[in-house]
Amino acid sequence: MRDLVREHAAALSLTEPKVVGHSPAFLQLLNLLDRVAHTDRAVLISGPTGAGKEVMAQLIHHRGRQPHAPFLDINCGALPEHLVEAELFGYAKGAFTGALSSHPGFFERVGAGTLFLDEIGELPLSLQPKLLRVLETRSFRPIGSTEIKRFSGRVVAASHRDLAALVKSGAFREDLYYRLAVFVLDVPGLDQRREDIPDLVKHFATLQPRVLTFSEAALHRLQSHWWPGHIRQVRSIVDRLGVLAEGSHITVEEVDRFLDAAPVVELVDSISLADALLSLPGDDKLAMAEQLLIDRAMQLSEHNKSAAARLLGISRKAVERRLAARSDRQRTAQDCLDEAQQHIQVSAFKEAVPLLRMGLDRVKHAVTGVEAQRLNYDLHRLLGVSLRALEGWLSADALHAYEEAFVAGDGVVDNAELSSLLFGIWTAQLMAMDLGKARGTVQEMLQRAQGSGDADLVAEAHVAMANTLFWLGDSGEALACLSRGGLVPVLDQERCRTQGFDLVGLALNFEGLAAFQVGDFERAEVARRRLITRAQQTAEHPFNQAIALQGAAWLSCLFEDMEALGPLATELETLSTRHGFVFYRGVGQIFRGVYLLAQGQMDEAETAIRDGFEVHMLRNGGKLFYSFYAWKLGEALLQAGHAADSDRLMSQAMDVCLDQQDRAYLGELLDVQGRARQALGDHEGAEESLRSAMSTALALGAVPARIRATTHLAELLDQSGRSRAALDMVDKLLKSLDKKTGFVGLNQALVLRARLTT
């Protein structure tokens, strides 16, 4: 096992590995590495074989919190499959035949150090859930043992393979991938950092048994050479020169002699060849590789199909079938557009994207003119719609597609159509928490829409404005905006002509949310029930169903209707996972975490809430949901007995929200902070936070936050002997409210008043 596991002693770990390079790509990598090294979260290192992934893992360890702890380097691809579990987790005496004594696994032996799982893509699928469990719970159980052991170290994983592609093919678990890819470091190959090659050569020269120097011409020759084996291959050549070169000063002639003599198997090994094929243009790499081989064989055989078949090792009929299939694939740009539109109509966005990209590639070769420009516009617009659905509202690719469509449409389409494009640009700005810019874009959208006289575009602009206003903390104006757009009261028909999704469903979301914030709980409840019904009615259109499920679950969460929330959250998460709606998957996971919290499953709740936002939403959907996420995570931490962590999170969250103008749940954040400080025994700080929560909620017109903060402050005053002041405070609150409501927070205030008056 010594060739599979390299265990570095504490004394050895004192020496940080030397890294060489000054290229922008490499310096960017080191900058990101320094930012993540001090955390204890998992890191995934990607990059081609030989690029230096192991060195980066060592560097993370040495610059991390425990540089003197062990560093274990495990090659997952080299471990025999039947031994992987035992080696990773260890085993107890008598666990199986031959287990004569207990054996600690890598997770136990690494202690507080770093476990480097190299070639993680080769880990057997059957063991991936067990690794995921360790990462989620920070605990593991050796084979044959009843004892649960804690894992206090960090995991760094690496792979030369595209793990995201493995996830799509089912060869790697998606949940494990996102757990490992909390931070991703992409190590550039030498083709991306050629300016570093001379420095690398000089560095490896210092490691030789004799001093080597290189002429400028020799260094230039090495710099311009193709290095499919990357840094590992460079070192191999320098090592060979160190032993076999006639002199210690290496000339360009000497370099050429050694490069020409390098065995083909070194220059183009199977892994390097695969990496080269994966760099081919286009989405379908397999098809491109096949096309490349067939074209070369036809060229070498002077287009004799039988001779080409012999070169390829297949039959002539197989060559003919593949050539015919290629011909079938030569769709026109219009064909691609028409087929993609059919997929989009049934929410099959995954199927639409490659067709749209193919169409854009085809239109490049089309005759220029208005027709080609119009095709370019339509293809980019629908690509934006599809990518937004798949990657979330903050998709950079979707935003780029919308911007390209905007340029392509100039002078070809009218202002009304361009107005609908602004909606896509607005979503990216909104989800990036750039609320000021988002509001400006909506205003331009509204002006264009009103000038067009198109009722759907006008409604669309008002929904966008209402959404923006809600997050800015102005729910009253958001309701008024929906009314001006002709969407309140919301009608039941679908209106998805311009954006490809149910605009009415989105409007109903924010009618309910805004109504809840201003204290119109009856109206919010009506919206909630209509969204539940709408989720059932839109089953044939999954994306529209996700919109309805989000609103229904969100309002159920606010009403604290856990009986309804559990199934709604699960359905939203399952639906979004099935169809690739990453953002809505994160939303569903957060809501599921709230449900688990109500069931007393504290650890599971915290994990679900964190992963929902950090793994799915933050990576793919944006930052806008942050205030709600922080509110619920703060409550989870508080209920789990981690009041100090909750207090710190609330301080951080309020700084972020104030900086970004996200005021939707500012009162709730202050309320949680007050309760956290009360739990810590800081009654003065608790009272200050709760009074701030009350005044903030009053200023924003946020009735639920005002009810919660007033109730919690009154309880604090009562506990400190100020019962009269507590009663006066509750009475003042209740005078302004309709007491016939299903809102749990108001019922708690009524119960408190009854107790204070006895």
CATH class of the largest domain: Alpha Beta
Helical/strand content category: mainly alpha
Low-confidence stretches: 1-13, 262-268
Q: In angstroms, what separates the terminal alpha carbons? A: 74 Å
Q: Could you say which overall geometry the principal axes of the C-alpha atoms support?
A: globular
Helical coverage, percent range? 55-70%
The count of helical stretches stands at 37
Rg (CA only): 31 Å
Largest sheet: 6 strands, mixed
Number of strands: 10
Strand arrangement, major sheet: 1-3-4-7-2-8
Q: Provide the number of structural domains.
A: 6
Strand content range: under 5%
What is the CATH architecture assignment of the largest domain? Answer: 3-Layer(aba) Sandwich
Oligomer: single chain
- By CATH, the topology of the largest domain is Rossmann fold
Name the CATH superfamily classification of the largest domain: P-loop containing nucleotide triphosphate hydrolases
What's the pLDDT, averaged over the residues?
84
